[in-house]
Structures are given as structure tokens and as C-alpha cells.
Fold this protein.
Amino acid sequence: MNPLEEALKIRDEIIAWRRDFHMYPELKYEEERTSKVVEEHLREWGYRIKRVGTGIIADIGEGEKTIALRADMDALPVQEENDVPYKSRVPGKMHACGHDAHTAMLLGAAKIISEHIDEFNGRVRLIFQPAEEGGNGALKMIEGGALEGVDAIFGLHVWIDLPSGVIGIKDGPFMAGAGIFNARIIGKGGHGASPHQTVDPVPIAAEAILALQTIASRNIPPTETGVVSVTAVHAGTAFNVIPEEVEMKGTIRFFKQEIGELIERRMGEILEGVTRAHGASYELSIEELVPPTVNDRDMAAFARKVAEKYGLRHGDAEPTMGAEDFAFYLQRVPGAFLTLGIRNEEKGIVYPHHHPKFDVDEDVLHLGTAMEVALAFEFLR
């Protein structure tokens, strides 16, 4: 079996599936239609199915070794601005991150694998996951048994930062860990004409925001990477009233867990010091969404060898401060999160992920399918 030749045979089917999913996007944990379409095909092809909410765990084959391949299925609350025949038909919802392509590529891999399962010396597990976009659907799938008996796992994400058709591979830390923080600066309100009778939280918040920026520049070692971004500030309702408090929220990003812990500790220390200096108080909560996505070095090297064997173009994937809940799988099982370049300036496919004009170069989707099949085939040899 040649995975690339097999993927070429169903190239049009993969594109058709992608367009169907694109026209009917579903948000996190709402993927009823998408998972129904996927399950119908998988049952037809002989997979053993386990449902985990709107997610699907599908097994085929037998043997001592098991490889898992994962695709996420959820869309985003974005109004599409593309003028294409397959434009989203659901107002305010769009596949603006390529999960429609991920689902279609893995569905293509599922079909090829089922037709050649006698040539696989082991079990292939397919994970069609809900709620990657802020819902930590990976944890739900893990709780549902997605990784039981799994020896290795791979995921594939379409990537606007790479030229179309290039498989991006990075060993070690690839995507950042991410957290959300919410903070309140609590002072004493009063009349805008009498600031001396108040503890004005607005300048205190301004001082705190500037101080928080020093965490990245003065606390994190220059050889490491971390981000603290205050993205929203809310205070007051009237021009002549000093408010009682200021609310702030934002995100933190990091490649190493110890850097994340350093950021959290310094945020608390800075808010404590600034508010105490001005006679105010503060509240801070930090919720870690996902850990860093760290690819296993051996699995990344394996992916490079597979790509070279089957003539699939590959290159280095640059690390990004974006986050992915695939990280939860990699905390438990060796594997790698790979990318498929989709940037094609001639076709106008240049807009970033989560943009209303985001689109994918459909002509290279079969390459993603071929890579997934090849990974499974070679791992189980």
C-alpha cells in the first residue's frame, strides 16, 4: 500500500466532506450533526465505535501495538466573510480554524485504513474530538478512555504560516501553555472633583498594568519565553465619579511549566505591592486552560522519517504562543502534534486562523490524509 496514492484516489471525497462540515459549523459540545456524519461512515467501514458525548472513539484492527490519530471537530463563533459556494450557512458560526479540514482528512484516513486493515499489524484508534476551542474536549475524551492501551498518538493541524503542502514538524515544546486571569483593584469611590477623599483604583490599575509587563522583560530569563497580556479593563460609568473598583482580565502564555508558575507568583506579588502602596486591595484568580504542547523527540523524528519515505515535503514548524488541548494527550502518551501548510497567496489563502476570511487550500488536504495513514502503517509494521 502506498498512502499517497490511496489518498489521491479519494481526494475529491475529502474535499467534499470538508465543504459539508464547513457549511454546517457547530460550536464546542454541539457537534451533533458532524459526529453523526462521521459515525455513519465509520460504522459502514467496520470500525468499533464508542461515543463520548459528541466525541467518537473508533477502533479497527488487532495486535499488540495501538496508534491513535486525533481530529477536532468544533467551530468558532465567527461570522464568515468569504464569498465561496461552501460558505457557512449558520449565522455567527464558522470553521475559522480548520477543524472541518481536520475531520475530513482523518475521515479519509479512516476509509483507507479500513480498506487495507489486513496490512496493519496492530490496532488503529481514531479520536474525533469535540470542544478544542476553549472546552478542553481532550480531557473529556481521555476520561472516556481514548488513551487506554495507546502506545503513540499524533494530531495534524492545518497551518497558515507554512506553504501549502508542507508538513511541519517540531520536536520539544511547540505550542504554549495558556491561562486566563481575572483581577480586581478595590479602592474607595467618590466625587471626581475630590480625589483626595478617595482611593482611586484607576491610576492604581494603570500602575499595576505597567508593572505586570516587567514580568516578561525582567523576571523571565532572556533565554526563555513567556507572555502576560492584559486584554480588557473595565471601570466606572460616569465622567465625574471615581469608581470603587477596576476589573481586568487577560492571558498568560508559557512553554515551560516552571515559567508559568513564575508568572503566576509574580503577578500576585506585583498586585499585592502596588495596591498596598496606595491603600487599596486586590483579588486575583488564574485558571490554567492547557499545559504546553510538547512533542516527543523520538516521535517527531519518526514523523520526519515517515514523510521522507513517502515523498511528503516537510520542514521545521516554528514554535507558537498559541495553545492546543492536544497537550493533554501528550502528557500521557508519547506522540507529536504536526502541521500541514495551507498558505497559498495565488489563491488568496493568507488570512490567519480565527479570521472571518480564513480558508484552506483544499488541493493539499489529501497530503494530510496520506501522512496520517503513513504514520499508522509505519508505526504498526
In short: DSSP finds eleven helices and 16 strands in the chain. The chain has a mean pLDDT of 98.
